Amino acid sequence: MNFPYLSHAAIDSEAERLRFESLNSRARDVPVDLESIVYDHLCEKDQLIIDDEGDLPDEDGDEVLGKTMVGAGRILINGRLKRSGDLGRYRFTLAHEIGHWQLHRPQILAAADQPGLFADATGADVITTLNRSIVGPKPPRHEIQANRFAATLLIDRKALQREFVARFEPGSVAKVFPSGRQLSVRERGRLVAAHIALGMPSLASVFAVSLEAMAIALESRGYLQDNPTLFS
Questions:
Q1: Reduced to 3 DSSP states, what percent helix, strand and coil does the chain have, rounded to the nearest 5?
Q2: Mind listing the pLDDT tens digit for each residue in 164-182?
């Protein structure tokens, strides 16, 4: 299925709406209480089932991180993520699948009501998230959308501004990047996300997110300049 364009503002608005609707006064807490969002709110409201115990087989030589099964009302998370102890990667993957549930499930359900639109395609209501869909250079549109949703859900704007300013003085971001090597924006974001500044834990660890999630947030909100001014 070809998913339509969604503006960044629309994706961010949906993620923030879900966070505030689920957590109310705790919506700006760090780290975000993802379990309450998912299990206390979404699972109750949508009768959604989350299964993060079983292993998911690789596809085309790539690791399958999760599956959003719209028709079955289930989200599967590869059990290897939970057992690995990498909480940030697990949380980002779960938030990513919630992004598919919130952003793309309505589109799939609407398409299913139009006879012939799926052309009897098997598995048309299942979205599979591969590792390269999150960290690869050219993920499909719907995966880019789910990535942005996950970063916004897990990283409140005001909380990020507060934590960033506490760690980086004006002009200090550039010092994180190694000299003599050209870095992509995403690579720069990962370095800033992992950097331990002024004796405080890294931004990724304080928000309990993956380096990829924090890099996406830093990139999309203008924090990777030498003197960031896009705090919003």
A1: 55, 10, 40
A2: 999 988 778 888 888 777 8
| DSSP per position, 49-92 | EEE-SS----BTTB-EEEEEETTTTEEEE-HHHHHHT-HHHHHH
Chain centre distance of CA 205: 15
pTM of the model: 0.89
SS3 of 127, please? strand
DSSP H helix total and E strand total for the chain: 12, 4
Alpha carbon distance 14, 189 (integer Å) = 24
d(CA 34, CA 22): 9
Is residue 195 within 8 Å of residue 205, measured between CB atoms?
no
pLDDT (tens digit, 9 = 90+) per residue, 104-136? 999 899 887 765 544 444 457 899 999 988 887
Domain boundaries, the chain: 8-154, 157-220
Strands 126-130 and 74-77: unpaired
Distance (Å, rounded) from C-alpha 132 to C-alpha 15?
Answer: 23
CA nearest to 153, candidates 70, 94, 200:
94
Strands (E), the chain: 49-51, 64-69, 74-77, 126-130
75 alpha carbon, distance to own chain's centre: 15
Alpha carbon dihedral 213, 104, 75, 40, in 10-degree steps, equals 80
